[in-house]
Amino acid sequence: MPRHAAVLLLAAAALAASSCDDVNTRLSINQPTPIHTVQTASFVPSTSSVFAQPVDLFRCPAVAPFNIQLNLVVHAGDVSLVVTQFRLVFTDTSGSQAPQVTLPAPVPTTQFGSALVAARSAQTFPLAFGLGCGTGHTGTLVIIVDTKDETGRMDSGQISVAVH
Fold first, then answer.
1. Contact 70/46 with Cβ under 8 angstroms?
2. Which of 77, 102, 128, 138 could form a disulfide with 39 if both were Cys (CB 3.0 to 4.6 A apart)?
């Protein structure tokens, strides 16, 4: 091998060895990035138990014989959110379950004025629920709240309220 070819090869090898090491760059690109945990919402009923009130002139299934009312406070976490729907499920003490009642969007907006809960604030939603058509009037009401935050992430949470 000619002498100048060997020197050229040696210079190329030295240049390659002294260039930037991309191993750390590749490792940092391929490493998972930590997810920033965002508290989206919490749900608090006005009371942990409610009393079923009898209804005059009920006609199942159009008008249930008992009605319950409660306020549900939605506390937004670190981001603003919109309540997209409420789902209410009642199970009486014997285990009979009433059909799920859903208040979908835009019903929360129409019914409550606004379904938007600004970040780090709260909004109260008054809820009414008829029961007693095919079930007893004491048991547990489960309220499932579906939300969507300002980034489009959908979430849901649920609470239970005793019905006497």
1. yes
2. 77
